[in-house]
Each structure stands twice: as structure tokens, then as C-alpha cells.
Fold this sequence. Notes:
Blueprint: H1 9-13, H2 15-24, E1 28-34, E2 37-45, H3 52-57, H4 60-70, E3 72-75, H5 82-94, E4 109-111, E5 114-116, E6 126-129, E7 137-148, E8 152-153, E9 158-160, H6 161-167, H7 170-179, E10 181-187, H8 195-199, H9 204-214, E11 217-221, E12 225-232, E13 235-237, E14 244-246, H10 250-253, H11 260-269, E15 277-281, H12 289-302, E16 313-317, E17 321-325, E18 328-329, E19 333-343
Parallel strand pairs: 2-3
Antiparallel strand pairs: 1-2, 3-16, 4-5, 5-19, 6-17, 7-16, 7-19, 8-18, 9-17, 10-12, 10-15, 11-12, 13-14
Amino acid sequence: MKDISKPSLKNLSNLRRKAISLSQAGAIAIDNLLPNRPLPLLIQPTNERLDLCAWAKHNREAIATHLLKHGGILFRNFQLNGVTDFEQFIQVTSGELLPYTYRSTPRSHVSGNIYTSTEYPASQSIPLHNEMSYSRHWCMKIYFYCFENAQQGGETPIADSRRVLDRIDSKIREKFQQKQVMYVRNYRKEFDLSWENVFQTTNKSEVENYCRNAGIEIEWLDKDRLKTKQICQAIATHPKTGETVWFNQAHLFHVSNLNPSVRVGLLAGFKEEELPRNAYYGDGSPIEDSVLEEIRGIYQQEAIIFPWQTGDVLLLDNMLSCHGRMPFVGSRKVLVGMSEPFSSSI
């Protein structure tokens, strides 16, 4: 587990001074993107030829401090010349990029550890969620690069995970805090993702070793099928700020998240325990549909939606902020990179 120390009081107290001095230098302007909404913070250059990587190299500490305060930063109108520069920006601000392992959605590899964002059909939306929160291992930072904006729609909504937690009924929070969340997955090539895709290997021993180290229970079934179970956090504590956040994907994995006709079709062909994916309370008891609908409603109410501009880079603290995707028309290409691994022991 990566050792992430808490920021010093000096760093936090200097936040306003640093922001002002950067602006006074004439290089950038800092403001909220939306009125009265601290998320995301907007940073853009006053000189349109300002190179993002070069600027970030000298302002890494200020970027990190802003991120802890706001939860997300939108870098707009900087010079960023394609995938190589995007990868370099991540390295400059966060260090080594992480591979996308123990996958839950289809993506394509672009370069190094840069991937396309989730490749669901354009007509579908992706609910707000924190990356890899269905696992005990996740990235602390996630970056999005708008390489090509959609003709219409395709926004990446975001929300403050602290506000989401605060709005959930205390009885629901307490029950999840006590029981946690169990994720059950059945891997079939014809439904959802195959285990070879999820674990990025065709070697069963490598899968078994990964699952053993990650605390995932596995069972090999007939016809080379795999079933996994894992109990993970429902609420997590940020290692730097000490704040608690709603941090799970029960609302995404649960069968109630499926289109009603798809749900009926799957349940006609499979027993509930055989579904490609589902979520339960950590003791194996069912999560009530009404509870998850309430949580989904809170996510929707907290969603912050803004149009992409080609060349935008959005940096999120993956625990403080969640993200999703709106349906779109036309070609859309948003790239993703992750950094700073963190592990939780529940």
C-alpha cells in the first residue's frame, strides 16, 4: 500500500496565497467553472500558447493542494499535443501511471497505460461512480482528456462524494457501514466481460494468485467459467483529508441497475446467483431495490454537468469526486489515465 502522508497545515494555509501569486504572475486564471460550485475548479492560461506540462512541472504542489480542497480541476485552453503530452502531464503531476486491472467495463488500450473511457453504446448513460470502488485497491487520481468532443452530449458528469454521503439517510448509511458490500461476478464470454478480459491473462494460475492477494474468493465452474465474490467497503476515509465518502458501486453492480427488459431476460435464463454481476450486503443478504433507487436519486441530484471542449483535461481526486457519462451523438473520444495506487483493509 502506498504511504500517503497528510498535508501540512502550512501547505493548506498557503493555498490562497499560492493561487493569488500564480494568477498575479499573469500565466493563468483560476476560478470556479460554475457559479457557487467549488467543483470543478477551472484553471486556464492567459496566454493561449502556455504548455500544460511545462507549467505543471513548476506548480505540482499547488495543483495537489487545490485538488484536495475542490476534489477536481478542469484544465482548459492549455497547449496539449495529443496522447503523449497527456501521459506526460500525468507523470509530471502524479508519477507512474497504473494499468487497468480487475476490469469491470470494456476499454481499449491507447498507449502505455492510457485507455479509452468505457466503451458502452452511445445511447447509454453511465451512472456516477468512483473508479474501482468495487475493489479494495483503487487509484487516488483519475485523469480524463477530451481528445474529440461529441457532436452532441457526451458530457462527463461529476459529483462530490462527501455530499453524496451526507445526503444518504443515516439508517441506510449505518447498515452499509456495518455490513459492507459483496460483489458477485460470473464470467461468461457471451455475457458481460470474460475472465480473460477482466484479469488480462489466459493463465488460470495468474488469476488465482491475483485473487488470493486481493481477498477475492474464486470458484472455477464447468466449461471454463469463473465465479468470484469479494466483500469491500461501502464508506471509505480519505487518507489525506480524513473525510468520509460514499465509496462503492452497489448501485451499478446490482441487478436493479439493468434495463427492465434486460433484467427480465437474464432472470429467465439464469438463477440470481448465476447473473453476470450483482451486489449484496456483505453478509450475503439482498440489498433492497428501494434503497438503491434512493441512492441513485441522490447521485442524479448532485450531478454537475458541463460540456467538454476538445483539449480539456479533467483531474479528479477519485475518492472525493465521482464521475459518469451522458449519452451522445457523433464521434467521441475521451481518454483516461490513472495514478497513485491505494489499498484498503476492511
